[in-house]
Amino acid sequence: NTRCTTFVSYNNDKLDQLLPLRDVVEGIEDSLQFWSEQYDDLLRRVEQNEHHIKELRRRTEKLETQNSNVSEMEAEIDNLEWKSRRLNLEFHGIMLTENEDLLKKVNALAPDVELPPLPDDAVVAIHRLPSKKGKISGIICRFARQADRDKWWKNRNKLRGHDDHVYILENLTK
């Protein structure tokens, strides 16, 4: 009987020690549940972010391709503009007069650049450029042949000795 009492007493002591541990275990379980939910939420966010990153990469690649295409098109436009202007020269400093014959005015420079006057069929188009306030508007001349245009361009520096205000420029893209 004493043995039984001792055994029961021993077990009661152990139970008394274990009962407070139940609260600790329940607290740990609650904490574990909370952190498990936090972890699951974090995993969802990581998956969403990975999806967003993948979508952003796809969009970035698309934009880079489009940007590359735009750059190629701009280069092609510049090339086409250059080709369309390669037959042109600009004549600046030639005074504006009423009812002017622009080809005659350009041909008046021919002796100064040591070239023969241009016949009508050597020029496709000739007109005044829009003028800036207080400035004499230039004349743009589109030559029919590259060789004629190049002769005038090559001899442009010969104008310096005749009239400092008259000069020739290439008609370049902006």
What average pLDDT do the residues reach? 92
How many structural domains? 2
- What best-fitting shape do the alpha-carbon axes yield? rod-shaped
Distance between the termini: 114 Å
Largest sheet: 4 strands, antiparallel
Gyration radius over CA: 45 Å
| Widest sheet, order of strands | 2-3-1-4
Estimate the helix proportion, in percent. Answer: 55-70%
**Class by alpha and beta content:** alpha+beta
- Runs in which pLDDT lies below 50 for 5 or more consecutive residues are none
Order of H and E elements: HEHEEHE
Distinct helical segment count: 3
Number of strands: 4
* Content of β-strand: 5-15%
Keywords: Coiled coil
Protein name: Putative crack-1 is transposable element
Organism: Rhipicephalus microplus
Coiled coil: 25-90
Could you explain the architecture of this structure?
It comes from Rhipicephalus microplus. Keywords: Coiled coil. This is Putative crack-1 is transposable element. Residues 25-90 form a coiled coil. By secondary structure, this protein is α+β, with helices and mostly antiparallel strands. It folds into 2 domains: 1-85; 87-170, Alpha-Beta Plaits (2-Layer Sandwich), CATH 3.30.70. 57% of the residues lie in helices and 11% in strands. The protein is built from 3 helices and 4 strands; from the N terminus they run H-E-H-E-E-H-E. Strands 2-3-1-4 form a 4-stranded antiparallel β-sheet. 7% of the residues are buried. The mean pLDDT is 92.
